[in-house]
Design a protein that fits this description.
By secondary structure, the chain is an all-alpha fold. It contains three helices and no strands. The longest helix is centred in the middle third of the chain and has 66 residues. It is elongated and about 100 Å long. Keywords: Membrane, Transmembrane, Transmembrane helix.
Length: 120
């Protein structure tokens, strides 16, 4: 004769049920840890490739900027002298750099004030 679910449940003890529950909990915890390890490994691997691509893009953008500056000096050299075009392009770039540095410094000081919660 086949046992019913009630008969099987009646034969199990509370200790056995707790043991099975603990084993299931351990299995679930191990699976969750393994899942997060694999996610972290994927993220690290992807980050390497992404960083390399951004680095290559930055290098190409840098060289494009140099080409633009050289082209600008040569083009302006036809209108004004080459020394004059070099001075003009250098001055404009230096002024732009100073403006960006001043803005960055201002934002840094503002961030420091917010972080340290100081007024002034």
């Amino acid at each position: 004769m086949s046992e019913t679910t009630d008969d099987i449940a009646a034969e199990r003890s509370l200790v056995e049920d707790v043991r099975v529950l603990v084993e299931d909990g351990k299995l679930l915890a191990e699976a969750e840890i393994d899942y997060h390890k694999k996610r972290a490994l994927y993220a690290a691997t992807a980050a390497k490739g992404i960083t390399a691509l951004f680095g290559a893009a930055a290098v190409l953008a840098f060289f494009a900027g140099i080409a633009l500056v050289v082209g600008l000096v040569l083009a302006l050299g036809q209108i004004i002298t080459y020394w004059g075009s070099t001075a003009l392009v250098t001055a404009v770039l230096a002024i732009g750099a100073l403006m960006l540095a001043k803005t960055a410094s201002s934002r840094l000081n503002r961030a420091k004030q917010i972080i340290t919660d100081k007024k002034g």
